[in-house]
């Protein structure tokens, strides 16, 4: 079989891909060597800005199939019928490290799904944790700065990590989760995914519900101990990437069962916890899990850069029947992601194959910009309204309106009757077996004992004491023992 001809970017044949053109044998290189100039210049431009968080990740395609009727709660078309299947792309990630970081580290994992629905792409951009460290988006850049590399030392610093938490008592719940047994998943297949935030569902009758999403792994939860994680991360930085890729190559397609907790909108105001506070869960005894369907991953992307690095998920991509709640963190995220995509990928990132709608098409009057590849709208009129049958609005709200009251201002999140920063962290601690508690305490003490300032250690200890007296005592003793060593 004859080989295809190697060409320049413009399609002209390349004569020599081994030797650059020179002025005579041994002479300097000629500026007219277009193939060399293009090859070097193109290479210089291969990298794009990595994600400012969740830089390191792995992705796969699959589908979601509805197994249970949820039409009483949402009019979303992709959830409208038992048996209905929707194509999707899912990207898993670690949070704090950069693109070349190791997979087997103690860190939350991203669990970002793009459902290619017939009513447009629905992005659910969650984590493997049901809660988060903070409850107001204004703290997010400070939080992330404290967890990523220090500007002077160039590495993650226990001083910064714990100093932030010393000033964020609301993080105690998520810190307890992260330092516990699920803090280092054995692979992306062996962990749950959560929407984490509260979202709003609206049914055909316009009735509103608040929901929380839980994707339970059908592979079973498997985690690594601190020692196992350190060993694996040192040996094989790509452990989670390899595991996912190879499982799907072998046809061992990972799956998750989606459950939701559903709260009728009228119950939100008097619920014992603020249902829009991302540092809190809704105990299942209050709102039980209801099954919705099954998510399966069955196809690896052909090209990691094109499909995983350039994937763009935005919590603001909703479909009719699903909308935001007033969770302040979620509200901040509704802005942050598409803004990041415009910077990282450009204004036309929605035209890339992984990001474009697949089960419908985008029809609007957004035009042009850098790298417009599909000549949006082509010859059609580029203003609206028009007399030429261009796309027009539906007049149908995507989700139910929210009643608001009060004055504008920088308010703290309203506290409900059972709300404080520590109760649920204590509940999580008390749920653990003695062995789990011992590992949790050892993991916390391992980090906290490295902090150089006593006042920062004291403030953190006070949080564990406030969560549970035994929890505080054990962490304090373990930290003291390590510092006396
Ligand atoms: C106000 C708080 C937050 C802000 C401002 C924020 C901002 C960002 C930004 C700018 C990115 C990079 C996006 C990109 O370049 O494509 C990102 C990625 C991500 N964030 Fe957040 N984030 C916040 C909280 C959260 C929370 C609470 C979760 C989970 C519940 C979360 C999950 C993710 C995931 C999974 C990704 C990676 C998405 C992907 O795979 O491309 N973030 N975040």
Automatic annotation (TrEMBL):
The active site is at residues 54, 127. Keywords: Heme, Hydrogen peroxide, Iron, Metal-binding, Oxidoreductase, Peroxidase. One of its GO terms (molecular function) is catalase activity. Its EC number is 1.11.1.6. It catalyses: 2 H2O2 = O2 + 2 H2O. InterPro entries: Catalase, Catalase_3, Catalase_AS, Catalase_clade1/3, Catalase_core, Catalase_haem_BS, Catalase_immune_responsive, Catalase_sf. It comes from the Bacteria. One of its GO terms (cellular component) is cytoplasm. Belongs to the catalase family. This is Catalase. It comes from Streptomyces boluensis.
